[in-house]
Each structure stands twice: as structure tokens, then as C-alpha cells.
Amino acid sequence: MTILVTGATGLVGERLVPRLVEAGEDCRILVRPGKTAPAGVQAVEGDLFDPASLTDAVTGVSAIVHLAAVFRTQDTELIWKSNLEGTRSLIAAVKTNAPDARFVMASTSNVYNKNSPQPGRETDAVDPAEAYPASKIAAEKVLRESGLNWAVVRFPFVYGDGDGHLEMLPKHLDAFGFHPANRISTIHHRDIATAMKLAMAGTFDGHIVNVSDEAPTTIYELVKLVGHTMTPSSEAMVNPWHLHVDGSIARSLGFQPSVRTVYQAVQQGIL
């Protein structure tokens, strides 16, 4: 199977691609001019804002893993252009040059309403105000209506393999207004690969799925794990289900995380 991965140099992509190569997949990554690929991976130049430039990247592929996204910026125009228009361009190129390929799109648990009365479910009506999740919802819709063979995999908080993501959490406590007892869903990079392998095999075809490990963990505990402290509180929580997802659909389709909890990752030295 020949797989095209976009966003291969990002937080998720640079850890996913080596696992796909190790599993024996023929990996192709989309890069900007002048960039190179790691050993065992083919680099193909292209621009998500220019569908015509994507012909070589998508021709002959069996599956597309679309990870490319912009979110760590205040430039909302760039977020919308990258996440919606970039996805639309890639879909157009696939429809023209690889119409039988399976298109797997990464999305986010940030799409769920903060005031949800239960863990975020794939069937929930969502209307996020922030540009990043709103642009992902719009891109999901374009993919679902494309006529391609599709799957959408929504990630919760991703961590592990020394990516530094957990270490960044204490810096954002005030900005996000977390209560120390807020439990958020998490997934290790190892199980991003688990989920994507299932998606590329067709297990998630025609589905939006939440993937997560088995133990949503409190912000208080996560901060402590990376050597910081958080002021404890017994005050009532506002939005207690924010960033907590229901992963039952993925599990019913066969997804089983190999890193079941953050504490397992600590014990195995893969944080």
C-alpha cells in the first residue's frame, strides 16, 4: 500500500511516519520545495493551496493520511485557509488523480461544545466559536460530501515520545481556565499509529471516530507528572466534560489502545 501523509513534519506526523515505515508501508510525504524526507520515505513537493501541484503526490496512492493543520497562531485567516481550503484542494486532487484512494482526515476533540452535558460524542451537534475547531468541522463536512471513501479520526490531547506537549500544559492553565479536577481524554503517539492503521485498512470507513486511551486524567495530575503544581480546589466545576470524549464507537470497531493510561506511559518511560 502506498500512503501519502500530509503534515509529516508536525507533532503527530514526525512520530507517525516512522511507525508506518516500520510496519512495512510505502510512505510518501508532501513537502514544500527544498525539503527532504527521512530514510525510507519518498518526498514529493506540492502546495495544499494549489491543487495542480498535488498531482504527483496523490497519483498512485492507496490512502491519504491528512494531518496537515494550522492552529498555534492568532491569524484566523491562515487557520481557515490552511485547514479548510487546503483540505478542499487535496480532496480535489484526489478525486481527479486517485478517486479510489481512502482519505483519512485527522481532526480534534476541540470541536465539542465546552458546556456539553456528557463526554463529547461523534453524533453531537457542534458549533465551535474558535477558528481552529470551526475550520476542522467545515473541512470534515467537505470530505464527507466529497464522494470519496473517507474516515475522520478526532484526536484528544496527544502526548508521548518526548514531544513536549505535556510539558507545555502548565503554561496554558490560566488561558484555558482549567479546574484542577477537569479530566481530559488523552492518546499516546503509539496509539495514533494504532488508529491510523485501522483507518487505512477500512475499519473506520464512513465514520467519524473519537480515539482515546482508557483513563481521562485530571489536569491536576497531568501538571504534577511534568514537575509542576496547580492550586487545588473543591469549588464546583464549570463545563466538567470539556475535552473529555466518548471513545465507544472506535472501540466497537476494534480500536484498543496499547498505552491505556498516562501512568502506563510514565512506567514504561515513553512519556
Name the features.
Rossmann fold; 7-stranded parallel beta sheet; 271 residues; 11 strands; alpha/beta
Structural class: alpha/beta
Listing every helix as H and every strand as E from the N terminus to the C terminus, the arrangement reads: EHEEHEHEHEEHHEEHEEHHH
Q: How many DSSP helices?
A: 10
- End-to-end CA span: 31 Å
Overall pLDDT confidence: 96
CATH topology: the name is Rossmann fold
Q: What is the CATH C-level name?
A: Alpha Beta
Sheet with the most strands? Answer: 7 strands, parallel
CATH architectural designation: 3-Layer(aba) Sandwich
The level of helicity is 25-40%
Number of strands: 11
List low-confidence stretches.
none
The CATH homologous superfamily corresponds to NAD(P)-binding Rossmann-like Domain
Proportion of residues in β-strands = 15-25%
Number of domains: 1
Cα gyration radius (Å)? 18 Å
Strand order of the largest sheet: 3-2-1-4-5-6-10
Q: Sum up the overall morphology in one term.
A: globular
Please describe what this structure looks like:
With 271 residues, the chain is α/β, with parallel strands linked by helices. It has a single domain (2-158, 187-213, 246-257), classed as Rossmann fold. Helix content is 33%, strand content 17%. The strands form three sheets. A seven-stranded parallel β-sheet has the order 3-2-1-4-5-6-10, sandwiched between helices. It has a two-stranded parallel sheet with strand order 7-9. It has a two-stranded antiparallel ribbon with strand order 8-11. The protein is globular, with a radius of gyration of 18 Å. The two termini are 31 Å apart. The model has no long low-confidence stretch (mean pLDDT 96).
